[in-house]
Amino acid sequence: MAFGGKRLQGWNIGELCVRACCKRHVTKTLKKTLPIILSLLGVALFTFIAAKAGIHPVMEALGKVGVGGFFLLVLVQIVIDIGLGIAWKSSVPQIGFLRLTAARLVRDAAGACLPFSQLGGMVLGVRATLAGRSAQAVDGEDLHWPEGVAANLVDITTEVLGQIAFILVAILCLVGHQGAARFIWPLMGGMVLLSLGIAGFIWTQHRGGSMVRKAAMFFGRHIAADWRESLIGNTEIFQARLESLWSRPDRIMMGALSHFVCWVGGAAATWIALALLGAHVGFLSALAIEGVVCGIMSAGFLVPAALGVQEAAYVALGLIFGIDSQISLSLSLLRRGRDILIGIPVLLGWQLVEMSRLRKQSAPVPAREKAVTSVLKKTKTSVMSGSVKKDVSANRDTEDKDDAAFATAPRVL
Predict the structure, then answer these.
(1) Rounded to whole angstroms, what are the CA distances from 62 to 57, 76, 272, 331, 335?
(2) Residue 254 contacts by C-beta under 8 Å, 6 or more apart in sequence?
(3) Residue 136 forms beta bridges with which residues?
(4) For the chain, N or C: smaller number of CB within 10 Å?
(5) In three state form, how does the secondary structure of the chain look?
(6) Rounded Cα–Cα distance for residues 79 and 73 (Å)
(7) Tell me, what's the pLDDT at 139?
(8) Whether the Cβ atoms of residue 232 and residue 146 lie closer than 8 Å to each other
(9) What is the C-alpha separation between 259 and 199, in angstroms, rounded?
(10) How many domains does one find in the chain?
């Protein structure tokens, strides 16, 4: 029975190991397939909305905007992007404004143009913060992964704080409209959950040393090996950078307020786009539409580029304010076209910067350094060969002396 008990126990341990391996395999498979599944669902939803609205009416609505109107929207968005750089600079003054603005552009472009979720855009934003041949802070100190991740986490936090205030204002603007109740209560519940989440996130950045290490491990799994070692090996520096940034609450509040102004600027861009499409609504109505759409898109952050989610949100909100589905779909397409027109050159420029940095790292050694290296090698070789010759001659002298001593020594029988 003892042998049978051990055997049964061994089978239980083996079964647990098999289950653990299966669970790990399922998790990895789900991580790979979930974005694909969500993308396919988004494409299906987008196709359904486009078929419902009709291609011809949408093209007519887009024709009203014209090339000049489209580039006006692009210009407005560039101004908003500059404002986002100012908001980041307000909370992270240690890094230059141009570097932060460029990193923000890369982060947004990755989320809008690449098949990534918003989390993937954040990871690329960290790398863009450290891009260039000499990544340095304002005081000349070199920037590494702890500084880059800390700066992005603080900016994301201040942006979410500004977004919560913006969505609450949008909900207030939505009150009183027919059919708005089906959006108000879910959004209020979502705002409560988001507020609790951001409060925990702020606490983690302040005092959650172990959680910070786990976050560093998470980012480390998505970057190269040498960068991973640099990040995980400097978690103490990472925590110190976070505490330094959070030691000035006035800067954090200034960053959140600046982000709120940028969110309102996004509502102004929506208002201009609706006017160009022929839907004349008030600014507060456009603010309500943009705020609720941003809240819905935040809830669907796992969907790459919010494909289908953005279109469905614009169409549903447009119906509340009496906007035809063709115009709402055209508004979503204008937003996507604007983001692509800005995002593609930004990503190409970032790739050129990365290629230049890699080319510098893999550049051949200059001729002078090669000559010095060859001379040192020759000198070392000659010294080694001389020492070898001396050792050989010394060994030969010793052998000759031993032979002579052996020859003259008396024979004892």
Answers:
(1) 9, 18, 14, 8, 12
(2) 90, 91
(3) 142
(4) C
(5) CHHHHHHHHHHHHHHHHHHHHHHHHHHHHHHHHHHHHHHHHHHHHHHHHHHHHCHHHHHHHHHHHHHHHHHHHHHHHHHHHHHHHHHHHHHCCCCCHHHHHHHHHHHHHHHHHCCCCHHHHHHHHHHHHCCCCCCECCCCCECCHHHHHHHHHHHHHHHHHHHHHHHHHHHHHHCCCCCCHHHHHHHHHHHHHHHHHHHHHHHHHHHCHHHHHHHHHHHHCCCCHHHHHHHHCCHHHHHHHHHHHHCCHHHHHHHHHHHHHHHHHHHHHHHHHHHHHCCCCCHHHHHHHHHHHHHHHHHCCCCHHHCCHHHHHHHHHHHHCCCCHHHHHHHHHHHHHHHHHHHHHHHHHHHHHHHHHHHHHCCCCCHHHHHHHHHHHHHHHHHHHHHHHHHHHHHHHHHHHHHHHHHHCCCCC
(6) 10
(7) 82
(8) no
(9) 18
(10) 1
Is 5 contained in some domain?
no
Q: Could you report the per-residue pLDDT of 355-395, keeping only the tens digit for each?
A: 887 777 676 645 444 444 454 444 444 444 454 444 445 54
Q: Which residues touch 109 (CB under 8 Å, ≥6 apart)?
A: 121, 339, 342, 343, 344, 346, 347
CB 342 within 8 A of CB 107: no
Distance CA 307, CA 336 (A): 10
Q: Give the residue from 35, 37, 49 showing the smallest Cα distance to 311.
A: 49
CA dihedral (162, 246, 79, 133) in degrees, to 10, reads -140
Question: Are the C-beta atoms of 7 and 276 separated by less than 8 Å?
Answer: no
In a domain, 8, yes or no: no
User: Which tokens sit at 166?
Assistant: 């913006």
In DSSP terms, 142 is beta-bridged to: 136
| Structural domain boundaries, residue 93 | 61-361
Q: Quick: pLDDT tens for 164-204.
A: 999 999 999 988 787 787 888 888 888 888 889 888 888 88
> pTM of the predicted model, to two decimals?
0.75
Q: Residue 87 corresponds to which tokens in the numbers above?
A: 């908001």
pLDDT band at 4 (very low <50, low <70, confident <90, very high): very low
Nearest to 104 by CA among 252, 296, 286, 262: 262
Residue 397 in domain: no
Q: How far is CA 262 from the centre of its chain?
A: 20
Is there a domain that residue 145 lies in?
A: yes
